Amino acid sequence: MMISLACKFGKVVLLAAVFVLLTGCNYGNQLAGRADAQEPISRSAWLAYWDLDAGEKDLQRMGEKLDKLSYFAAYFDADDHPVIPRELSERHRELAAKKGNYESYLTFVNDRQNPDGSSELKDLEVLRRLLADETARRKHIDEIIALTLRGGYDGIELDYERIWRDKEIARCFPKFTDELYEQARKNNLKVRIVLEPGTPFSTVAFTPGPEYIVMLYNLYGTHSGPGPKANKEFIQKTLTRMKSLPGKKSVALATGGGQWGDNGERRFLTENEAKDLAVQHGVTTRRDESSQCLVFAYNDQGAAYEVWYADGKTINYWIAIAKEQGVQNISLWRLGE
After folding, report:
1. What tens digit of pLDDT does each residue of 50-91 get?
2. Model confidence over 15-39: pLDDT tens digits?
3. Nearest to 69 by CA among 51, 34, 96
4. DSSP letters along 247-312, please?
5. How far apart are CA 264 and CA 141, in angstroms?
6. End-to-end Cα distance, the chain
7. How far apart are CA 153 and CA 79, in angstroms?
8. Phi and psi for 121 in degrees, rounded to 5?
């Protein structure tokens, strides 16, 4: 989604809030004060193939503040082979030539492109074919390794979603990640694994070694009624459940928000789109106490709408909660939004 020029200044402020104040969130409560300011923080972000120009502009603004950059994403073709969008590969080559100090990761998702050009998002069928059978699993791992090495990335990021809804995939996934990590190590590649907040952390034997990043968003969204992407209770409960994960804990936070209409319309919004709507309809925002998100309502063409979205103050509040529980590795979804 493109950012309007009228909101460009606000976007710069949000980036500054997230990537400059990460080392010492100054939100007006005791959460930030209790966080260990001496503990180093790792800052990560995603660059999506459908918004490369805006994403690169954000990347340039960050300077040396970024530790890891994930290129989103490689998906499956109609024959179950992972492929990288051409525009993403080209942008990675361009950025690699002038690369800063950050590590680069290639993200793999379980989206699949059909022969007719349509797509299946978060497809479980392809994972059943590739993970349940040992031979297919090894072939898939080999393709992931080869694609990552050929592209010149520093590591692999796995973002397979909805896997815990399928018993067979859930049974095979830990074995798959263990085998993937072993092969990645042999090829001097690092591994990051993105997990949904509903992951059964305490009952899955996750292999030590990879960095595990848990999504702290989508508490509310197009799957629900109006509300914040995250709030204090949701973050604290998820962080507590995450404690069984091996190694250092990492979390992903999301900018933007959503719009819900009583006519059934539901869609995600960027922060700038939400601000534009508030100005367009002349409404005043309020800040929700439990999430620190901004909220407003308006009427348009006979329908009533409610909007929730995060700004820099919101993100810093969420970071402070994470830091209070010792989580210092923060990832932002996504650049350009």
Report:
1. 999 999 999 998 878 999 999 999 999 999 999 999 999 999
2. 545 554 443 333 333 233 333 445 6
3. 96
4. SSEEEEEE-EEEEEETTS-EEEE-HHHHHHHHHHTT---EE-TTT--EEEEEEETTEEEEEEEE-H
5. 42
6. 7
7. 24
8. -90, 140
